Amino acid sequence: MSTARQKILIVDDEPDILELIEYNLKKDGYQVYTAINGQEGIAVAKKVLPDLIILDVMMPKMDGIEACRIMRAMPEFKNTFMVFLTARSEEYSEIAGFNVGADDYIAKPIKPRSLISRINAILRRNVQSDDQPENKLEISDLVIDRDAYLVFRKGEKTVLAKKEFELLYLLASKPGKVYTREVILKSIWEDSVVVTNRTIDVHIRKLREKLGDMYVTTVKGVGYKFEAK
């Protein structure tokens, strides 16, 4: 997918930050739109339907957390990548961001080339998934076949229990995306009342025992993500 067809919306109340990010993203071939607060960001997003939205956490009128929460509830932004940008380093702000549907978290001060690399990597997730056969993921040295409920690592078959497989498939479907415990519970166990966070931890431990520790990463206080090494 060419970056020239990909649209990015930057929402930040600091003009210098907007200008810096906009310049570097345009230089890299992206179509770039800007807004200075959460309310304006939602309005612009509805008009241009960006592929990715960069949101500052602290803004007047409406902060990035609330703007992300509102947009995630809209069908047109269900699969839009959301990245938070903030100078705040407190763990609770990161947890709040991931809990409302953030895909990544980037701290200020901005390092342009590092930012571009992160954005490129996030947007490649869509390209990788488009190139994959439906119901089969090929990532790193793993082949995950959803139809057969089988996993092959370096060509060798690994048999997983049904929920272990579904958990792995969910995480691997978007490498690098952090899935909160709440999202995992709703996606894998639906509305079961007997499932707890401890259940997720046990299944993660079993996945690591069978596949090794290098695939599933714990994001402290938030959830888990799949790392394509």
SSE series: EHEHEHEHEHEEEEHEHHEE
| Rg | 18 Å
What is the β-strand count? 12
Termini, distance in Å?
A: 22 Å
Strand order of the largest sheet: 2-1-3-4-5
- Please give the count of helices: 8
Q: Give the CATH H-level superfamily of the largest domain.
A: Response regulator
Q: Bin the helical content.
A: 40-55%
How much strand? Answer: 15-25%
Report mean pLDDT, rounded to a whole number.
84
Number of domains: 2
Can you walk me through this structure?
Helices cover 42% and strands 22% of the residues. The chain is built from 8 helices and 12 strands. The strands form 3 sheets. A 5-stranded parallel β-sheet has the order 2-1-3-4-5, with helices on both faces. It is elongated, with a radius of gyration of 18 Å. The two termini are 22 Å apart. The mean pLDDT is 84.
Summarize the topology:
Elements: E1 7-11, H1 15-27, E2 31-35, H2 38-48, E3 52-56, H3 64-72, E4 81-86, H4 91-99, E5 104-107, H5 112-131, E6 136-139, E7 142-145, E8 150-153, E9 156-158, H6 162-172, E10 179-180, H7 181-189, H8 197-211, E11 216-219, E12 223-226
Parallel strand pairs: 1-2, 1-3, 3-4, 4-5
Antiparallel strand pairs: 6-7, 7-8, 8-9, 10-12, 11-12
In brief:
The protein has 229 residues and is an alpha/beta fold.
Key traits:
alpha/beta; elongated; 42% helix; Rossmann fold; 229 residues; 8 helices; five-stranded parallel sheet; Arc Repressor Mutant, subunit A
